[in-house]
Amino acid sequence: MTTSKTNPREPHAQPYYITDPTPLPSHIPSVPEIGATSAPLLSASYFIGARCAPYNEDFMLCRSQSRSGETDCLKEGRRVTRCAISVLEDINKSCQAEFRKHWGCLENENHDLSRCRLDEAPLNACVSKFLNLTKVIPNSDGTPINDYETPSFFQKKVKAKYEQ
C-alpha cells in the first residue's frame, strides 16, 4: 500500500497494526483502552459476559438498528468497555494469582481452553466466591461449570496427564 505524504488523513500501515489519524468528533468523549492481550480477555470472557450482558445487549441492539454510521453507538460501546475494564480490575484485585495462572496457561497452550481446565477451576471458584460471578456455558441448562460432579472424558484425560 502506498501512502501519500500530502494527505494526513490517509491510514498509515505499520508492521502490526493500522492507525487512522482522523480525530473523533469533539462531542464524543474518549474512553480508555482495556489494555489486555487476548489470553487475559479469553480467561475473563465468561465473567465479562456475565456482568456486562445488559450493556452488551444495548450495544448490539443499537448496532442492529443503526443506519447512519459507526458513531451512532459509541456511547453504548464505551459502557461495554468500561464494564469490561471493571471486571478485569476486580478479578486482578481478588483473584490475581489464579487469574495469572489461567491466562498464562492459555498463552502457552495456544488459547486452547480444554488444555487449561486444571487452572480454570480455581479461578472459577475464586471469582464465584469474591465477585459472585459464575461461568455458565451459553445455551446450556444454566448450571455453572464448576457444579458438574462428573467431568467429561476429556477433562479426566487431561487431569490424569497432569497428575502423573
What does this structure look like?
By secondary structure, the protein is mainly alpha-helical. Helices cover 54% and strands 2% of the residues. It has five helices and two strands, in the order ββααααα. It has helices at 38-65, 74-94, 96-108, 117-131, 153-163; strands at 12-13, 18-19. The chain has a two-stranded antiparallel ribbon with strand order 1-2. Helix 1 (38-65) runs antiparallel to helix 2, helix 1 (38-65) crosses helix 3 and helix 3 (96-108) packs antiparallel against helix 4. The protein is globular and about 60 Å long.
Strand content: under 5%
Bin the helical content. Answer: 40-55%
How confident is the prediction overall: mean pLDDT? 81
Terminal-residue CA separation: 53 Å
Shape: globular
N to C succession of SSEs = EEHHHHH
Individual helix count: 5
- Poorly predicted ranges: none
Strand order of the largest sheet: 1-2
Oligomer: single chain
Summarize the structure.
A hairpin with a 4-residue loop joins strand 1 and strand 2 (18-19). By secondary structure, this protein is mainly α.
What is the element layout, followed by pairings?
Elements: E1 12-13, E2 18-19, H1 38-65, H2 74-94, H3 96-108, H4 117-131, H5 153-163
Antiparallel strand pairs: 1-2
Helix pairs in contact: 1-2, 1-3, 3-4
